[in-house]
Design brief:
Elements (H helix, E strand, L loop, with lengths): L18 H11 L10 H4 L1 H39 L1 H9 L4 H37 L1 E2 L15 E2 L5 H18 L1 H8 L3 H6 L3
Antiparallel strand pairs: 1-2
Helix pairs in contact: 3-6, 3-7, 5-6, 5-7
């Protein structure tokens, strides 16, 4: 009998398991209700706060990246409109309404963005799933964390909630950004547009 000689046990589980589910099962299986089951976040709250801060910074960086991408899309669309002025002018001279030109520009931009997002999503998810099976060894960078009972190998996983959020944000932001170039194309005067050279 160990009696009072042991005050705590440290349990290391597979990083791919749900920690909250393991804690819940342990609490149900303990015969002595005076015993406590704590997660690493309860034991090292400073580390948990650091990770939450890091996630917030990642979100800010993603917003900055999305802003830069939106500006790049806007610039590309404006250059495309300038290069195709005569084409749009001819379309409108043949009977196309300004709303048709706007719809063409918006749909073209939306389809290209959707295709790029799907290809990027397939590549990113494939790489994440592959690396998630073998893990990433961070022992050269996390030697000091062994005292906190934190493993040095991490297993990335795909969080479909965040993937769907960023996918929707990319598509919606692209749709909004494409409205201004499309509106400019819809305001073209057919005769003036067809006279433009270059």
């Amino acid at each position: 009998s160990f009696e009072q000689r042991i005050s705590k046990f440290a349990l290391r589980i597979d990083p791919r398991q749900d920690v909250s589910a393991v804690v819940r099962d342990l609490k149900k299986g303990l015969p002595d209700r005076s015993l406590k089951v704590l997660t690493w976040e309860d034991l090292i709250p400073m580390m948990a706060q650091l990770l939450r801060f890091q996630n917030g910074m990642i979100f800010v960086v993603m917003l900055i990246i999305l802003t830069v991408v939106a500006a790049g899309i806007l610039n590309t669309l404006m250059m495309s409109i300038i290069e195709r002025v005569r084409e749009f002018g001819l379309m409108m001279a043949l009977g196309a309404r300004p709303s048709h030109v706007i719809a063409i520009v918006v749909m073209e931009s939306f389809l290209l963005t959707t295709l790029g997002a799907v290809i990027g999503l397939l590549i990113g998810v494939s790489v994440t799933l592959f690396v998630g099976t073998i893990g990433i060894d961070l022992s050269p960078f996390m030697a000091t964390l062994k005292n906190f009972l934190i493993g040095s190998r991490v297993y990335p996983r795909v969080d479909w909630f965040y993937v769907s959020i960023f996918l929707v944000v990319v598509l919606v932001s692209n749709l909004l950004v494409s409205l201004y170039p499309a509106w400019r194309a819809g305001r073209l005067v057919p005769v003036d547009a067809m006279r433009q050279v270059g």
